[in-house]
Amino acid sequence: MSSVWAYNGLLPGPTIRASRGSTAQLNLVNGLSQETITHWHGMIVDHLNDGHPRYAIQPGGTYSYNFAINQRAAMNWYHPHPDMLTGEQVAMGLAGAFIVNDSVEGALGLPSGVYEVPLVIRDAKFDTAWNMLYKPRSGGFLGDTPLVNGTLNPKLDVDTALYRFRVLNGSNSRIFGLTLGNNEPFTLIGNDGGLLETSVPVTRVDMANGERVDLLIDFRQMAVGSSVLLRDLRSGWDFLQFVVARKVNDTSTIPTSLSTITRLSNPVRTRNFSFDGMSKINGKEYDINRIDFQVPFGETELWRFTTAGNAPHPVHVHGASFQVQSRSGGRGQLYPWERGWKDTVLLEDRETVEVLICFDAFKGLYLLHCHKLEHEDMGMMSNFQVV
Ligand SMILES: [Cu+2]
Asked: What's the 192 CA to ligand 1 centre distance in angstroms?
């Protein structure tokens, strides 16, 4: 691979790991020839640290982030968020994982060390010299090649052990249907907002760009020398080949009970958001200077997302996680990976998705937007103020 845009020269960017209760201090230095700013997707931080496009820095500029980490364990991520330039910057390589650990998760004894593997999966497009290419289209950029942790056609040697794979769909617009090539079940334990209440055996997980899933895959019954694929049922791509390379004696068990999720309830008001066409929310294109609505601090609200067409629209909210309540129209159901806490939820054509949300961490300026990055760049984004 020849030319990419990368954080610290790495594709994807360095995996940041931090514990609840610690402080993150990070400096962004803009080495691009266009403005940028970094958003910590899933991190609950004050608006000056949230990477709002108003705070974009010019080429050569620096932005210093400093925020306390005070949220449940989860795999979050970071990527650029400048006005109208996010799609290009992410497609060219700017994204990385940001893992938060806490003592609740630590006490579960989940696979760790070499048995805990972050997988940043995305599609990409290259020119004949293997330079990363960005060809925006209004329906969303689609690459023709999968990359797992920046690698083409990857293989991973595994032991006969239980593994934890923390998967981020880092694509601009592509949705994945993850499955194992042998159709064996695997175990879903978490998503955007960290661990679910209970583990769920599944044979398939669908994830829109921006969503994360936390999976346990058990290789203990497999023979040394055998292999299994992690595949995408939607594109037909093979993402990753696991090759069983070494016999070990792993006696760990898959926990059933994982975490406590305090349910949001009794919303004091409802807001309706219509994702219109490919560039509007409630009939308006994004204006960086316009505040579209105000949300009282600490009050639970029901937000209803609808779309008549031009989906998929993965809806993402900054400043708080939410709990998905229902989906009507379209697929007409919720999925196991939509339980617990979420920050991104997939809205398909003619669907209405209701979530409960409460902004109880910070007041300030935040964003609601479609995470199909080309829709976001065309204006499917809204400023709101927590007051
Ligand atoms: Cu959209």
From this structure: 19
